[in-house]
Structures are given as C-alpha cells and as structure tokens.
Amino acid sequence: MSVVNAMEFASLALRQAGNDEAGEAAPRCGGGNSYDGRMGLRISAVFVILLGSTFGALFPVVAKKNPRLKIPDWTMMFAKYFGSGVIICTAFIHLLTPANEALTDPCLTGPITEYPWAQGIALMSVFTVFFVELLAMRFATFSTSHLDYDIDNPSANREKGLRGNSPAAITTDPEALPCENNEAIKENYAAQMIGLFILEFGIIFHSIFIGLTLAVSGEEFTTLYVVLVFHQTFEGLGLGARLTTVPFPNVWAPYAMALGYGITTPIAIGIGLGARSTLDPTSQTALLLNGIFDAISAGILLYTGLVELMAHEFLFGPNLKSAKISYVMTAFVLMTLGAGLMALLGKWA
Questions:
Q1: Residue ranges per domain, the chain?
Q2: A GO molecular function for this record (predicted)?
Q3: How far apart are the C-alpha atoms of 330 and 296, rounded to whole Å?
C-alpha cells in the first residue's frame, strides 16, 4: 500500500509541477488598456501635437519657399542637421527598442519567441529599401522639366537661356556637359525623390502607433504627452528640412507631405480615444502589430539616416565636400545634438 500511495503522490506532484511550469511559461496576454479618464486633456493632445508637428514640418518649407521672410541661414542649417540627428536616433531608441520589447513580451508564444525578430525584420527592411532604391535608380523616371534646365529636352533649355539671357541657364545647358554628367544629375535627383518618399513612409508608420498608445495610456499620460509634443515637433523639423532639399515638380507637394505628417498622430489619437473601450495595447495581436511595424520603420529610418543623411550628405554631397571645416564641424555637432536630445527623451517615451 505504501508503495502504491507513494507512486500516486509522485504522479500528482509531477502533474502539479507540469501545470506550474506551463503557467509560468506563457502568461496571459491582454487585460485591457490603462485609460483612466482625463478626456479633456487627451483631446487637447490632439490639437497641441497637431500644432507642434505641423509647425515643425512646415517651418523649413515655408522659410525656404518665401525668401521675403528673411529667415537667417543658420536657422535653416540648424533645422537640417539637428533634424537629421533626430531621425537617426528615432530609428535606434524610439523604434528598434520598443519593437524588441513588444516581440519579446513573455506572453507571446510560438516561433516569434525563438528568434530576435525585431532585429531580423529591421534587417530585412534595410535590404528591401536598398533593393527598391536600386531598381528605381535604374528604371524609374522623374521629369526634370521643372528644374533650371530640362535634361530630357535640350532645345527648351536653349530657348530659356536665349529668352532670359540667363548665364546660369546657358552654363547649365546639358548639351554643354558630358553625357555622363547628364546621367549623374538625373540619378541624383531620382535618389533624392525616392529617399524622401521612403523617409516619409517610415515616419508616418511610427506616428500612427505612438498616437494610439498615447490615447489609452494611464498614469504615465502626462509625461508621455509632454515628451511626444517635443518628439513630434523635432521629428517634423527633420522631415521638413529634408523636404526643402528636393526641387519638387509640383510647388504644393512639400506642403502636402508636411501636412500629411502633421495630421497623422492627431488622427491616431482620435481613433484611439474612439476605440478606448476595446483597444488593448497588451493583447497578442497588438504586440505583434506594434513590434513588426516598429521594426519595419526602424529599418527604413536606419537606412535613410545612415546612408542618405550621414554618408551622402557628409561624405559625398557637394555642399559639405567643398565647405570649410568649421561649417562641417558645426553641422556634425548639430546632428549629434539632435540625436542626443532625442535619446534623452527616450528615457520617458
């Protein structure tokens, strides 16, 4: 009897241990959001962030397009390089880190837990962006008729030069340049346009999720609110500064892209408030969506920041290659300042 009882006890103990291990291995996801009221303050976030992000994105564009405002050159320089640092830091601190936290949450199960997917998805995103840009550089066509000269229509360039007696138009006539220079100009313009659209795409993805998060956050709402006002304004400044570097065929295109960025987070906040009774940022689906899309955006901004904003601008761009070393060092310090400030904001959001 004692042997039988011992065997039954051992069997019960083993079953209990198995149940305990299973319970510890996969905690239950979800549980609702942390929304705790303060609807008036949350609604104010829609308008304050709309104002900050739209101002940040539009200010460089308006200043560049309206010389009558007499905005000092150093202001534009600050916006351009400070904003570049903000974008680079956003990729590392505000996208890749949250993606890793979401995709390694203890409540997730299955293949997602068996690999560092945040870094893997960001890596795939980098190569995808590079592949798209590689193909676009070879096969995409962008009209240059809105520039000072039209590479695809040399006769129009001569007419412009003769009518206006413009030395600039005459000296930049593509027929006066070697063929390889014509192709280099077209490729540079194509690269600028593609890089800018990719940058906007990555930033807008990120802005949607932070708006949803802010809408249903709990006791940390006030801190998150203040931090995101600065975050969105600085990020908008970086995007707006880049919008001024490309000669768009449509004069309203940079304004539309700046406004598109400005309204994204406020709209996401509004959606989050409307769905506050059902929105659960800690559910399995929400964790997967947040983690995957943050990782995709991180890869996009990593590529854009390191390749377009750092390497092309500082190492290969004609402006900084021929600039005085004092100007280059100032640009570098501004870029690190933007990255450092955004890294500091990462302590709270």
A1: 57-142+181-348
A2: low-affinity zinc ion transmembrane transporter activity
A3: 32
Given a cut of 90, whether residue 153 has pLDDT beyond it is no
Select from 60, 346, 88 the least CA-distant residue to 228. 346
Under 8 Å between Cβ of 45 and 230: no
Beta-carbon contacts of 267 under 8 Å, excluding residues fewer than 6 positions away, are: 211
Whole-angstrom distance, CA of residue 98 vs CA of residue 343? 13
pTM greater than 0.85: no
Q: Indicate if the pLDDT at residue 22 is higher than 90.
A: no
pLDDT tens sequence across 275-287: 888 888 888 888 9
Degrees, nearest 5: CA angle 250-60-190: 45
Least confident segment among 12-21, 145-154, 306-315: 12-21
Task: Give yes or no for a contact between 215 and 271, defined as CB atoms under 8 angstroms apart.
Answer: yes
